[in-house]
Amino acid sequence: MRILAFDASTEVCAAALGDGSRWAECADAAGQRHSELLLPMVRSLLTEARLELADLDGIAFGAGPGSFTGLRIACGVAQGLALGASLPVVGVGTLEAMAETARTRTGSTRVIAALDARMHEVYLAAYEHDGARWRERIAPTVVKPDEAPLPEGDGWTAAGNGFVEYPALRERLAGAAASFAEGVLPSAVAIGDLALPRFAAGEGVPAREAAPLYVRHRVALTSAERAAGMRL
């Protein structure tokens, strides 16, 4: 099974094409340029592999949480490409993708993923790998760093930029965390690896049913918040 996977939920724009045993990947620091970079990345990967969209079995995207604009871009691109090629779509949680990225890099099977949510909050979830799949121990949520829920037990790997941006979060989870992997973000390869068994199980949905996972449902800032430089 060969799929296309991509993510635009953070400052990095990333895309990958592969079948699980082998991936070709593009990634770049995008800032606010995800809409400019994502489709060229997709075209480059397809051209390099000498494939057309119709040759694929599905499209996966980072569904969220993350940047509202980035999530909408990724979902919209997935819908547009999938609709044109009659392909199923799978949306993968970005915090679970961070856990998978951490497992690939460090071997960690217990991961607390925390992504900077702006506005002095973090997106946070905890996952434990049972040897076959990730099990959710704390569901994705958006919280103040010093109010983050604590997972049961210890020996967790704390992954993500939330631990860099908010020292209070690091302090709160220090007792549970055995190590920190602050540089972990959701990668396109991790999204692809998590999506493949879902496609194989028939969990892909039609393009029109694909949707972002915002977690935070506030979609606008006040004038004062915008003036202060806050972003959603």
Describe this structure in words.
With 232 residues, the chain is of the alpha/beta class. It has two domains: 3-94 and 187-227, Nucleotidyltransferase, domain 5, CATH 3.30.420.40; 95-181, ATPase, nucleotide binding domain (Nucleotidyltransferase, domain 5), CATH 3.30.420.40. The chain contains seven helices and ten strands. It has helices spanning 34-49, 68-85, 94-106, 162-165, 167-173, 188-200, 223-227; strands at residues 3-7, 12-18, 23-29, 58-64, 89-93, 110-116, 122-129, 134-143, 156-159, 177-181. The strands form two sheets. Strands 3-2-1-4-5 form a five-stranded mixed β-sheet, with helices on both faces. A five-stranded mixed β-sheet has the order 8-7-6-9-10. Strand 6 and strand 7 form a beta hairpin. Helix 1 runs parallel beside helix 2 and helix 3 (94-106) packs across helix 6 (188-200). Residues 219-223 have low confidence and may be disordered.
In short:
By secondary structure, the chain is of the alpha/beta class. The protein has seven helices and ten strands.
Task: Map the helices and strands.
Layout: E1 3-7, E2 12-18, E3 23-29, H1 34-49, E4 58-64, H2 68-85, E5 89-93, H3 94-106, E6 110-116, E7 122-129, E8 134-143, E9 156-159, H4 162-165, H5 167-173, E10 177-181, H6 188-200, H7 223-227
Parallel strand pairs: 1-4, 4-5, 6-9, 9-10
Antiparallel strand pairs: 1-2, 2-3, 6-7, 7-8
